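Let us practice reading a record.
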Amino acid sequence: MLPELFHSADTFRDRFEQGLIDLLRSTGELGEDILVLANANFEPRIWDHLRDELRTCFARLASEKATAERKGRAMAGAADDVATLREILDHGFDTLRPTELRRSGPWELQLNQLRAFRPARHSNAVISGIRAPFDAGRFHFDKPFLRQEILWEGRLLGRAATLFYNKFPFADYHGLLVPDLGEHRSQFLEAADFAFLWDLAQELAARMPGFGLGYNSYGAHASVNHLHFQTFLREEPLPIEDPHWSHNGGPAPYPCRCQRFDNPQDAGGFIDGLHRQEISYNLIAASGQLYCLPRRKQGEVGYAPWLNALAWYEMAGGFPLASEADFRRLGAADPAAQLAAVDLGTAHGRR
């Protein structure tokens, strides 16, 4: 029996939105105010509902920041959040507008101003290997201050699970699903973790059309070395799901290697082989299918200035952009070239 949150797409959206409203009206904490702003700004209908309250909230925060600076003291809040607030206020609240999407050939381009203000984490570090020990001294999801950012927690397909809001979303109804939060597992898929991912994706795709999960392995822009999946609930398929790609039976090759799996045995065996070869990869589970993209590790290839990372969403054909000029000018060849640059090529026997 699935928890009520996952009974339908409408239930999930309603609970997601109400949780943001409750956060804005109850906590009064800087980190949560930023989370609500970024999530509301991503979804036009939430933005329309909360924009005036958020304007009042950030006017108050601007006043608090000015008072703290005048008195020569630090503003209350985590250093990352204070730095993000400074970026937001320098940009100007009334210049913010909901995230905008457009297609450039087969690719989805996303103008996402607020995501550009997030603090840098581990996702851009140069990586070797396929796993690293969990490090309690680094950022992870079992920090006490993150408790306010939980959307739901409980049992999910027989396993303890915690669903957080993504503080700087780049996907519709974007969450972070952490199995066995307190066990402090590193970002590495054991066989049981993969089975959980597969079964969950199948169950929820059937109940909630448009629901999917993304996974970044260690070395493939996993920003936190604490086992987690990213969740989303879209109305339109991702570009990687388009039937014209050869991995979906069409005529066009994807710019980098993409394997599509329809059963867990083949998928699990393939991923196990990547682990043995210490090859990083991204996974996208959507519409009952699993897409696996083995790739060169982060740090091995330089990216274009407009591209921050090639994680699961980018590898699935979606590209968040901070600059409106880049959003307007990029053509279909630009994302394709970046995807091709992380292809493993013949070095690992591409087929």
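A brief commentary: Residues 118 and 328 are 22 Å apart (CA to CA).
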